[in-house]
Design a protein that fits this description.
The structure is a homodimer.
Chain A (H helix, E strand, L loop, with lengths): L7 H8 L3 H8 L7 H14 L5 H8 L4 E6 L5 H16 L3 E6 L4 H13 L4 E4 L7 H9 L3 E4 L11 E4 L1 H14 L5 E5 L5 H17 L8 E3 L6 H11 L6 E4 L2 H13 L9 E5 L13 E4 L2 H17 L8 E4 L2 E3 L6
Parallel strand pairs in A: 1-2, 1-3, 3-4, 4-5, 5-11, 6-7, 6-8, 8-9, 9-10
Antiparallel strand pairs in A: 10-12
Helix pairs in contact in A: 1-2, 2-3, 5-12, 6-7, 8-9, 10-11
The structure holds a DNA duplex.
Chain lengths: 336, 336
DNA sequence: TTGTAAGCGTTATCAC
DNA sequence: GTGATAACGCTTACAA
């Protein structure tokens, strides 16, 4: 019962037909007698034939595979996106490779080479580096790809799907300022990624419109790795930093900050009002009512798949995709 | 600049050498002159050669790919495991396919066929069905695999890595009973999966030891899909179900239950004490101090990769892996 | 309606 | 040291 994989050749020998006939029969080609098709299909099932997509891919040049390159699937934001992407892709008979880069340059490069080497038909990538250099490798190799969540200003040629980060940053900050928080701490992501820079633009615009100054010491970059935020917030509390509003680059950071605030006996929103980004609460019901900027992960994921498939299926199309999906602020108790 | 993929043949033509020599030079084989190796490697870099793993795989029979089949990467529990698995696998130069089954039979079967068809070298799967039938397909096709998180009592031949679910269920329940909660609601996972059955065994043992009866109406199965739990807990609250302790099959369910309790104005732990399972808090700092059973996801993931690689590299080994990783109860404020 | 031959890009084997 | 040849399992084109 246990065994080697059954090949077309095995079926051919057993059936006394040529490999070719078997292949065509299994694909239900018209030019094979109906009766033969039936016999062969039954035999295939009986022998547990599964087929070697590899060999077919080598010939056809298509692997029906998409690589998804993100910094970290353990972050629910990416976990949710990867799930949605996989789901969309599966509908079109595509399988996905998932590669984490941990936001590191070298890993991103390796991920890209791995994907190309495995002959994926397309790539959906959330780039983590400032330079577009790594991504250019894809262009050079003629691999269809689309950026998700981040973009490169200097490369208008790269297709992308992002959310309106500037608006999100603006809405979150404005809400805090409107609620009387004159000093809003911004725990931002690394400056090298576009979404962090654009959210900061929004943060600045809100201050400008409110006629309030932006103090540099309230804008702090936190690393992507879990735990980093805790140290920083601890430090801020201990040196009694002056702020009452807190806007975080993403929900994970916001949670972590609120976690530390709670540990120190502060209450949210009474002592500190907190706003996150990603609105993970829409998919995971956490018993902490975090106000957050919603960026329609589902929509972004679906568009990314559509775009990359479009590029796979229309390699000569010169169409460009630069999609910015709307963001909205979802208010909950963390900023009551 | 944009272009077709460069092949060994292209390099060979350019260099005036045979395809074979190029191949061996790139792999740093001793039998190629050092100078030639250098020239060729430089040329490869210059021309942007990436190599077609597909073709190599067809020949070697190895794809350096592992499929990871889980119900849902958007659940942080799986997101974290997939991340850990990817990381371990990457260290050994393996890439992972991720396929979600949404806990559905048909999708699980499809996932398995897809994985086999893509010639993965091995599979790590968290099976979602009662019957081991689908998994047997793997045996039949001779694909090395290991179960993670769940097992089949009737198939002692399947290797697995699980956590001590019975003990986890026992510890959580005992803790609640010890704290005076005579009626402990158990929001369990579907009975068709082994971990749910074993956690229930633990729940029962704790009651037995405490000399308390187990009431059937306190054991409720909740679906895997987010949102399901909310309806159920709402219903329980509205018909004033009699319980003060709550043990959930996983943290996601526990959060969701606590979420609803909070919405109804109840406090945790003053009104209801809540214990989860998975201890996601160890990786994600949520500002809700949920007591939870820790199951060492990192250890499980790592072992699963080690085992599947071992099976890939020693196809004839008859060694059997049945690993049960210890569980511990981590106390936090949700059960103070 | 079915079979034959070539080829996809590599790697393994053996000869030069 | 390097090159020629076959092979991996399948598909496409064409012949029978």
């Amino acid at each position: 019962m246990e065994g080697k994989k059954v090949t077309l050749r095995d079926l051919a020998l057993k059936a006394g037909l040529s490999v070719n006939t078997i292949s065509r029969a299994l694909k239900d080609k018209e030019d094979i007698a109906l009766s033969t098709r039936k016999t062969i299909k039954d035999l295939a099932k009986e022998m547990g034939y599964v087929g070697n997509a590899l060999a077919g891919s080598l010939r056809s040049g298509l692997t029906k595979t998409i690589a998804v390159i993100v910094s970290d699937v353990a972050n629910p934001h990416f976990g949710i996106m990867v799930k949605d992407i996989e789901k969309s892709a599966r509908k079109h008979n595509y399988t996905i490779f998932v590669i984490n880069t941990e936001d590191e340059h070298e890993m991103e490069e390796r991920a890209i080479y791995t994907a190309i080497g495995k002959n994926v038909d397309g790539i959906i990538i959330c780039p983590s580096q400032r330079s577009a250099e790594t991504i250019r490798i894809l262009k050079k190799n003629g691999v269809p790809f689309v950026l998700i969540g981040r973009r490169f200003e200097e490369e208008p040629d790269f297709d992308y799907v992002i959310c309106d980060d500037e608006k999100g940053g603006y809405l979150a900050t404005k809400h805090l300022l409107d609620n009387g928080h004159k000093r809003v701490l911004f725990l931002n992501g690394p400056d090298r990624i576009s979404s962090a820079r654009e959210r900061l633009d929004g943060y600045r615009r809100a201050h400008r419109e409110a006629g309030l100054p932006v103090s540099g010491e309230l804008i702090i970059e936190v690393g992507a790795s879990a735990g980093d935020t805790r140290q920083i917030v601890k430090g801020l509390i201990e040196r009694k930093a002056d702020f009452t509003g807190l806007f975080a680059f993403n929900d994970v950071i916001a949670w972590e900050a609120a976690y530390v605030l709670q540990k120190y006996g502060f209450r949210v929103p009474e002592d500190y009002a907190v706003v996150g980004f990603d609105n993970i609460q829409s998919r995971l019901f956490i018993p902490f009512q975090l106000s957050s900027v919603s960026n329609s992960k589902g929509k972004m994921s679906k568009r990314a798949v559509d775009i990359v498939l479009h590029k796979i299926n229309h390699p000569d199309s010169r169409e460009r995709f630069r999609e910015v999906i709307d963001t909205t602020l979802i208010l909950r108790e963390s900023t009551k």
